[in-house]
Structure formats: structure tokens, C-alpha cells
Amino acid sequence: MDLAEYFEKTKGFGVFATADSEGNVNVAALSRPTVMDDGTAAFLMAGHLTYNNLQSNPHAAYYFVEKGGGFGGKRLLLTKVKEEENFDLIEKLRKKRYPIFAIKYDNESKYVVFFRVDKVLPLVADGVLKPGATVER
User: What is the rounded distance in angstroms from the CA atom of residue 28 to the CA atom of residue 62?
Assistant: First the structure.
């Protein structure tokens, strides 16, 4: 199953991590990404801390936990490649991802932020690390 199909079919919740240019970290709950035809992962964002961090540091991570317990899910290592304020695209993605929240976000700044997916990792690393071992990045 490719990444686009995975996020279309798999229910769960996601956590998005960013840091500003000085390394100050922020973590926020975000909906599943929409994987575009070009392979980029698109997220809708308001003009809050996550979005602001991406203005000075394009690197982020997304942690997706599959519904149903266990350790199913994915970790995405991401690099921002562009953003848009295209109202029609924002509405299309919003209705697709979270239609019941459309009214809540009507008065907020909205952006579609696109990321290159640099790496996809399992939610939980296979095996146990031995002292002194490093995790592949």
C-alpha cells in the first residue's frame, strides 16, 4: 500500500513536530496529510506556532498512530517545499479531511503547506537498541 492509499484508508491520529531556527520545539495534533499526485504531503495549517516555526526551519516530523491500539503507524521525516493560500484548494482539502470542523476554522488564517517526504519509518523501531547503538536517520 502506498502512502496516499495508507492515509486515505487508515484511521488514527497524528502529531506534528517542528522547531524554530533556534531549536525551540513545538508539537501539535494535526489531521492526516493528503498525499498529492507529485508525492508531497499536504497539511492544512492556521497561522499558529507550528506554521510560524516552519518559516525559519523547514524540517518537521509527523507521528501517526493507527486507531485500534497496538503499535501500528508511521513516522514521516519531512521538509517543507512550498505553501499556498489558495482558498479553493484549502476548502477541497478541508472537506476531505475534517468536514465537521469547517465552521471552527472559518475565521483563522489558513495555509496549505507541502512537504517532501524524506523518510518513512515504522511507528516503533524494530528490536531493542543496545547500549551505544544508533538509530538510522
Answer: 10
